[in-house]
Amino acid sequence: MPTGKSWLQQSVQFFWLICAVAVLFIEPICLSAATIEENISAIQQIDQKAKNGEQATAALQNLQQNASAGDLLPLLNAFQEANPLAANYLRNAVETAASRLKKEGQTLPQEELHAFVVDINHNPTARKIAFDLLTGINESYREELITGMLNDPSPELRREAVALAISEAKDLHEAKSEEAKPAFEKALSGAVDSDQVQEIITPLEELGVTVNLQEHFGFLCRWHLIGPFDNSGLIGFDVAYPPEKQVDLEASYEGKEGAVSWQELATEEDYGILDISEDLGPYKGAVMYATTEFVSPEKQTVEFRMGTPNAWKLWINGKLMFSHEEYQRGMKLDQYRIPVELQAGKNQILLKLLQNEQEEDWAQRYQFQFRVSDLVGSAVHAEK
Fold first, then answer.
1. d(CA 287, CA 250)
2. What global pTM score does this model have?
């Protein structure tokens, strides 16, 4: 008879020792398709208020620790159906898993990542993550890919392409090459960010080219306005004054300070800012309405991008699209972005802009800017 540990106990221990050694030499495999799908599904089910957050966090940790190189593409594809919070979870999963895999000496799928990046039908954020992974493997991919992304639907990739085009144009400009002007104009054709546009137009002006910023960004600069109506005590936000019921440019109504009628105003300010205080009056405790038409050549999805320090509501073709009751917040380009489905032909835009009664110097701004763009930020122009 064996002494000490039983023969069975020794056999079991030997079995587990063999398994442990084998794990060291077996190439890691992907999570099973079902497990990948289950983890992705758990992450996609988290909502913007973090409902289902516990399940999503557990799935994220599983992916961080266990996802292999073959699981990266399914994770990137999952961005297509992910809300912004879920997309953050997916980004964390991909980047953490990829970092771990590289430390373990595993090879990331270069060909698959390359194909993913160049396919513009994939989610823009996911494509940028794939691009970063790819260039992290081999930096030579950067210039190869970025050169063709001047009008890419991914804002981040487009910005990098514009930066490269600006750099090349500056080199030509310093060399006093005749190719500098078309090089800067090419860079401008893809630029949607204000800082890059400014970086381009300065040398273009030196070369005798005047850039129409209103046209470049797609600002709507001609409006009809009416008011003021009453917003004393901030009552006006929920009051439907006559222009909300019908836009009739021939009509006049009783306003806060007497009869009011529609007035046509246009702005020549480079960034399309229409200043109510300067052009109509420094109204306080007031409601103004502004309307214009946008003729679309076809049915299309665009973004209305506006900036204002005032409270506001927005209608398109009589449908309330968005409202924001906050005063003196500050104003910047593309402060608000509202996805809108335009119908083919005429589209009526109506803005309600409200000013409060604060008397401080910093609380006197009563203005707005409004532009129409695609989802990346390139101008969408009305049919003339």
1. 19
2. 0.83
